[in-house]
User: Fold this.
Amino acid sequence: MIPRSNLHTHSTFCDGKNTPEEMVQAAISLGMDSLGFSGHAELPFEDCDSWCMVGDRLRDYRKTVLSLKKKYADCIEVALGIEQDYFSPALSDSYDYVIGSVHYVCPHGYAMATDINPEVFCRELTEYYGGDALRLAKDYFELVANVVKKTNCDIVGHFDLLTKFNESCAYLDEDSSAYQTLALEALDAVLEDNPLIELNTGAMARGRRKVPYPAPFLCKRIAEKKGRMIFNADAHMAEKLLYGFEDAIEYARFCGARELWYYKDGIFQADLIV
Ligand SMILES: [Zn+2]
Ligand SMILES: [Zn+2]
Assistant:
């Protein structure tokens, strides 16, 4: 069973390449049951207004997705979501669901992006953390541990995003017990809030990672603790809407997952992995 649903979708209203309608049409041609939009919410940092939804752009995003929901209701279930960053201001409108994500750490008050550009990331890792990725991981996972409470999210986005460039740049020993302890402590804290946790194939689609977020030791812990996993593509273009889902099923099985969650008829439901 491969989920025909994706709730992590970016469009031209934030940093995606296609309009929402192009995304909906692509989802229909792929035979998808549901498609949720999760544009980037506002962030209080410099340079974020170009890829986050503020003011009129947020208003138009909501209007557009809600009209597509009606227009294509006979073909596909469209949902209006948003991707709240840990540092985004509280939402003032209602959404079908919220993805809560940590994209930034703030060493000495500076907003350092963990996922935009490997060269800048590595330079800032040296500048702000003396190259010590474990210190960065400590800051990052302190935020992740509280992301559900802070953003009031339904779904936790890309749990270990800080490893995005690690396969090519090797700044962090992900097998070390020091790193895994930090990540697992944050995961245990998150699991107490019982959100859905993404198996996110976005970095695979960009050729950055071979497996989805989160890493195997984290997925195994989610499975052991009967946490709720949901597949998401973090798609920024129409052709990536279900990217890597076949591999992700194998991955979920390998990690011991017995069921997957998906969105149908306006609620989250579970299906056994067979
Ligand atoms: Zn994100
Ligand atoms: Zn995203």
